[in-house]
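Final report, Chapter 2: Outcomes

The project's central promise was a pipeline that accepts a single protein chain and returns its three-dimensional structure in a standardized token representation, suitable for archiving and comparison. That pipeline is now operational. To close this chapter, we reproduce one record exactly as it appears in the project archive, with the input sequence first and the structure output second.
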Amino acid sequence: MLILFSGICFSAAVWREGMRVAPPRPDTRRIPSWLLISANGFLVIVTLAALVGIWLPHAALR
């Protein structure tokens, strides 16, 4: 359940960046969108790989 929730959080971060919810403050630099999307995409892939890695051994035992 925790692995699925982390994947949802990564996806929500990318969605929030795309929506531009709050305007950036002038003294704060924003992370480039391409970097945020690629890092979160990588983390979602790792999350899914961990989920498959946990799920498959249990499914094989049945």
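Archive annotation: The helical segments are 2-19, 33-60.
This record, like all others produced under the grant, will remain available to the consortium after the project formally closes.
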